[in-house]
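Page header: ASSEMBLY MODEL / three components / 235 residues total.
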Amino acid sequence: MDYTPLHRWDVSCAEAERLQRALRERLVLQPPPDFAPRLAAGGDVSTHRDASRAYAGFVVLDIVSRETVDAVAVRAEVTFPYVPGLLSFREIPALAVAWQQLPTRPDFLVIDGHGLAHPRRMGIACHAGLVFNLPTIGCAKSLLVGRYGHLGEERGATAPLVHRGEVVGMAVRTRARVSPVYVSPGHCMDLPTAVELVLRLADYREPETTRRAHRLVNALRRADLAGAPPPPHPE
DNA sequence: GCGACAG
DNA sequence: ATCTTGTCGC
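Prediction written out in full:
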């Protein structure tokens, strides 16, 4: 698929924050008027402990039949370090390499990380939506900002995620008695729609989009590992 | 100044 | 996220 880079990615942390504050103004926090999604995509990145090598991939699935209709995984280089609040600058360049190899344009994308539930309301899900130009949802496994109150133990229970007096996302119980996931709008998305879609996609704790993308990149990672294994015990 | 801190 | 052994439970 095609996309719009929007800006350079090899920037300083201060410049990255400036870009986030500027890009924030371009966000659309409402789904398209004719939004009737059928194809969901999940994207994920797997990085090494030290090396700059990363694996990135996308899986596209039909939300009705649940069939995987597309899957691409690539090797890529990461240069930006992991800095809380600046995850997009580390992962989006790698995701973009995989995105170019994707033959089908999905109706929306679920990203492993936050959207509006971010210090500057510009998490990786928002940023990815702007760059790839499609509706996006952030679905994270842990909190970056915000707090929430009581959350029922049953599947489908929700509790608003509040940060600085604003509702920025929702804690969502996708499985009974299992820790929740944190859902927030990315781009061309609102919170109710994001929560509904994540619940529709989740058979287990995480939505199938994320699970399948995660398995895909890990498979490529292990395949590479078997091809050139650095011997731990040189005897 | 001191903690907290997506992946 | 990654590095890791065993272990609890369906």
